[in-house]
């Protein structure tokens, strides 16, 4: 059985906090600290089953990781528990290539390696 989920290019994702938009970053802490989308919600993939209630189900939900693999899995799982979520194709690597803003954990300019 082939699974299909909604997917959007990083360049087309609205900014977090733009009236009902939540970007959920599912990468590990060190990846998040290095650089993430401003306003994103950090819930590492491993913590998602315990913390998904932090996500507003009424928001437009975009799930991102480094390249799109983990976020695909989390998006699929969120849909299985009733959330309408979209995978960010290409992840934070594509986000950076698109020239989107990235901040580090200390609030400075971030970078995706």
UniProtKB/TrEMBL annotation:
InterPro entries: GlpE_sulfurtransferase (IPR050229), Rhodanese-like_dom (IPR001763), Rhodanese-like_dom_sf (IPR036873). This is Rhodanese-like domain-containing protein. Coiled coil: none annotated. Residues 17-104 form the Rhodanese domain. PANTHER family: FAD-DEPENDENT OXIDOREDUCTASE (PTHR43031), PYRIDINE NUCLEOTIDE-DISULPHIDE OXIDOREDUCTASE (PTHR43031:SF1). It comes from Lolliginicoccus lacisalsi. It comes from the Bacteria. PROSITE patterns: RHODANESE_3.
